[in-house]
Amino acid sequence: MEGGALALPHFRSRVGIGSPILLSADPGAARRSSGASGRSRVSRVNPGAYPRSAGRGRTWKRDSPEAPPRRSGITRVPNRSPEMPTERAGRTKVSNVNLEVSHHRAVAAVRLLRIEKGKAFVDLLNEKGNSSGENEMSYVERTLGFSIRCLDNRDIRLVTVIVAGTVRWKRYLDYLIMSLCSEEKVFREMEPLLLQILRIGFFEILKLNVPAYAAVDENVRLAKVALRPGAGNLVNAILRKLLLLKEANSLPLPKIEGDDRAQARALSIIYSHPVWMVRRWIRFLGKEEALKLMKWNNSDPHFSIRVNTANGYTRADLIDRLESLQVHYEKSTMDEFVRIQEGMQNYLNLFHVQTVLQAGLLKEGMCAVQDESAGKFPCLSDSGTSHLSKHLILMLRHEESIVGLVVSVVDPQPGETIIDCCAAPGGKTLFMAARLSGQGKIWALDINKGRLRILMEAAKLHNLDAMISDIHADLRLYAKETTATFDKVLLDAPCSGLGVLSKRADLRWNRQFEDLEELMCLQDELLDSASMLVKPGGILVYSTCSIDPEENEHRIAAFVQRHPDFVLQSVHGYVPAEFVTDEGFYSSSPTKHSIDGAFAARLVRSVL
């Protein structure tokens, strides 16, 4: 697995995946028989109340916005109507398409539910017509009880904007929603789907500046159709109250006052970050820098395109194509990269992304989409790319790789043997292979066999497969069993991903303070193992996409104490001077350099 924001799937079991969330999604659930009369009526249930969980005898309660997020799951789905037979019965499925609701909002609400359950990522949806897109529509139908029409490209872009923004601003939105509910109990016992609809409405009004009538009317209609009329009435009342407060510039936000802990809590709400992150950044960076960092994390991220020189293309070739496609760009300080302007979640920029992909630039092997510092491959759809390209982009969404400037720290030279110790899904491996100019060899080692397969398919697409061999293994076991050594060893270590929160909208909520200690132990183990693969006189590069000193400088200091045969070598001369620290490390800072945060150290093994 490529280093970066680590979910630790291979090193520990995840707790809480199966925790239940109750979902009342049957649009007819509010109607009940009135007895012998046979008449139906609308339930007089309080629109803010939450239905009892069958067989449990208690009401599910939601945490406060100040509490750590809890994992949730779906305990039931709405009953299918008689005219909607299942596929398992071998009959043709008849879709109950609802044309009344806003389709992109319906998809966004369901996707937000799945993200909270831990079954989805904050990705751009795939184009209609492929299996992933069909699965998404299936989730909508099973959750809401009706299907929607296929989304066009504009709808897909809107879903991406709404989902990423709503997740990013979740703590801020939840605080305001709770403040505007008639009672705190209404918020704490609010059913998950209703909460997602309110979050969408609040985000559209406060951050997207969607016209008031559209934000209110469309979300009210969605709540009424997907839940019940009373839910729509509640959404209407709360959203209209929000509009009045916004117009009066009197949103009920907390004041930044009191002791350090109280100020951190207030800032965590205003800037929508976990309290522990805010306190940690104030401690290491100071309050002013911490505020700048949180603003960066909440801003629209950019991304870069790297030209594939191995296929004979130059940056000038790529720029010519971008200009012919009328895609706005700017040149990077690195020769292989071009930046796409605007934010990745920005409407205009999403149009540019789709244009680049649909023009077939990835399919041709002309370029790769990634970040200069942290090798980000955004999850994008591409109706014009190959089957491989779609799945490659999807897989690259889940992990970060240190490519760009960090590969410059490795400084691959023709004829060298290099091992990439946490290689999949392959951004840095491909970039290093391209730097070898057809001479040398790279071994890509990873614990995930499926991701290694995608890496090798990508290498073939980029005409680099002859230079790359894959090794499916746990680095810690492989280092003990092999006698092989290499000229250069790159360990792009699993880390917290605190340097890439602008691109990973959901990552801030999936990180706990306790994760850091576990990650640091893992990083030490992997460093020790990677060091065994370095030839005498060879180079070991350790990198992360974190800005936390305990994952970076502190790990190197501890490693050198354990391994006196390794000496730190300055990265000066390998990267621009602005990225070189006083200690000789590579470090990129979002607030100083306007790119993702990353770290790298270059160590030389003594000959004796």
Q: How much helix is in the residues?
A: 40-55%
Query: Which fold does the CATH topology of the largest domain refer to?
Result: Rossmann fold
Structural class: alpha/beta
Major beta sheet summary: 8 strands, mixed
Number of strands: 16
Give the DSSP E fraction (strand runs of 2 or more residues).
5-15%
Total number of distinct structural domains: 4
CATH superfamily of the largest domain: Vaccinia Virus protein VP39
Low-confidence stretches: 8-63, 68-93, 124-131, 342-350, 372-402
Rg result:
26 Å
Mean pLDDT across every amino acid position: 78
Please count the helical segments: 21
CATH C-level class of the largest domain: Alpha Beta
Q: Which word captures the global form?
A: globular
CATH architecture of the largest domain: 3-Layer(aba) Sandwich
Distance between the termini: 33 Å
Outline the structure in words:
It holds the Pfam family NusB. Residues 326-606 form the SAM-dependent MTase RsmB/NOP-type domain. GO terms for molecular function: RNA binding; RNA methyltransferase activity. S-adenosyl-L-methionine binds at residues 422-428, 446, 474, 492. Residues 28-45 have a biased composition (Low complexity). α6 (192-206) packs antiparallel against α7. The strands form four sheets. Strands 8, 9, 10, 11, 13, 14, 15 and 16 form an eight-stranded mixed beta sheet that branches. Strands 5-6-4-7 form a four-stranded antiparallel beta sheet. A two-stranded parallel sheet has the order 1-12. It contains 21 helices and 16 strands. The chain is α/β, with parallel strands linked by helices and 608 residues long. Residues 8-63, 68-93, 124-131, 342-350 and 372-402 have low confidence and may be disordered. The protein is globular and about 75 Å long. The longest helix is centred in the middle third of the chain and has 19 residues, at 229-247. It is 40% helix and 12% strand. It folds into four domains: 103-248, NusB-like (N-utilizing Substance Protein B Homolog, Chain A, Orthogonal Bundle), CATH 1.10.940; 260-297; 303-369, Alpha-Beta Plaits (2-Layer Sandwich); 404-605, 3-Layer(aba) Sandwich (Rossmann fold).
